[in-house]
Design a protein that fits this description.
CATH class of the largest domain: Alpha Beta
Number of strands: 12
Structural class: alpha+beta
Radius of gyration: 20 Å
Helix content: 25-40%
Strand content: 15-25%
Shape: globular
Strand order of the largest sheet: 1-2-3-4-5-6-7
CATH superfamily of the largest domain: Fructose-1,6-Bisphosphatase, subunit A, domain 1
Bound molecules: 6-O-phosphono-alpha-D-fructofuranose
């Protein structure tokens, strides 16, 4: 009898494959990626139980064991900082949940900086909508981890060594890039492993979905309004009208559009003059993924990965997804359409 086995590739073995193929993906980077994958398993464990809040205790109360229950985004933040900090591979971290940078307690070999949003879209948890962790890894500018500073966290997105996200949805999927393609892994809770499920993701050059919060219509500039009206016109030759898909959870909207094609736009509005989304731990990591998958990511004109950061929690308008759709959106924004 010939035993035919599905080719089960764990995320750890995929990281090692990348390390063997690409010198810049060194053992330290592989360790870092394993740390992030491990931390996401700790976050997943609680996120998938969130619906049990009234049994386990809601945030700010105590659960049946009398333990204080934290808001899940704060819980996720602590899990990532503790799980990764204890391995001493990162010299410095920046988190959406922390006003200033974090120097992990034990820092032996860390030559890298980690920027992350521990649980983006966490307000959706109570209604069981997918949420996500987003991460971005940079090499320190200098060679002395002991001298790591905020400056190491404020590098252009084009300098990222690796980036990715974990979407906690109907299944839990980790998607990452080290600059050599985009690869997705689905978590199998029966064995506690992320298994390769989406090798070499390429995003369609145009899609049928657009993701914009049209509830902000009154706050949008004329270019954005004209772009939305354009997408709604009947024109089968250009695949219009597009369909609106807006979950209000960046990772969920981005992941769907990455796989099916489409565009996500969070523009500058009257309320968010520089956009709402964060450059360092939302736009940059997703832009790296998107470009590696053949897509495009700008702030409506400038390439996201070329924006020089000025501060850790800097915001940016974000136009990201299928290259043809983002280019069309940019033409409306600059008034050439
Ligand atoms: P709005 C969630 O709060 C978030 O940061 C992203 O996940 C999401 O894409 C965006 O904000 C939604 O913002 O203003 O449309 O509710």
């Amino acid at each position: 009898m010939i035993l035919t086995m599905n080719k089960l590739i764990t995320i750890e073995s995929h990281f090692l494959q990348q390390q063997k193929l690409y010198p810049e993906v060194n053992a330290e980077v592989t360790d870092l990626l394993n740390d992030v994958a491990f931390a996401s398993k700790l976050v997943r464990r609680e996120v998938v139980r969130a619906g049990l809040g009234d049994i386990l205790g809601l945030a700010g109360t105590t659960n049946v064991q009398g333990e204080e229950v934290k808001k899940l985004d704060l819980f996720a933040n602590e899990q990532i900082i503790n799980a990764i900090g204890q391995h001493g591979r990162f010299a410095i971290m920046g988190s959406e949940e922390n006003d200033s940078i974090i120097i992990p307690p034990k820092n032996e070999t860390g030559n890298y900086a980690l920027l992350f949003d521990p649980l983006d879209g966490s307000s959706n948890i109570d209604v069981n909508v997918s949420v996500g962790t987003i991460f971005s890894i940079y090499r320190l500018k200098g060679d002395d981890p002991g001298k790591a500073s905020l400056d190491d966290c404020l590098q252009n997105g084009a300098e990222q060594v690796a980036s990715g996200y974990v979407i906690y949805g109907s299944s839990v999927v980790l998607v990452y890039t080290t600059g050599h393609g985009v690869h997705g892994f689905t978590y199998d809770p029966t064995i506690g492993e992320f298994l390769l499920s989406h090798p070499n993701i390429l995003t369609p050059e145009s899609g049928k979905y657009y993701s914009i919060n049209e509830g902000s219509w009154a706050q949008l500039n004329d270019g954005t309004k004209r772009y939305i009206d354009y997408l709604k016109e009947e024109d089968p030759a250009t695949g219009r009208p597009y369909s609106t898909r807006y979950i209000g959870s960046l990772v969920a909207d981005f992941h769907r559009n990455l796989l099916t094609g489409g565009v996500f736009v969070y523009p500058a509005t009257k309320k968010h003059k520089n956009g709402k989304l964060r450059l360092m731990y939302e736009a940059n990591p997703l832009a790296f993924i998107c470009e590696q998958a053949g897509g495009r990511a700008t702030d409506g004109s400038r390439r996201i990965l070329d924006i020089k950061p000025e501060e850790l929690h800097q915001r940016t308008p974000l136009y990201i997804g299928s290259v043809k759709d983002v280019l069309t959106a940019e033409e409306f924004e600059k008034g050439s359409r």
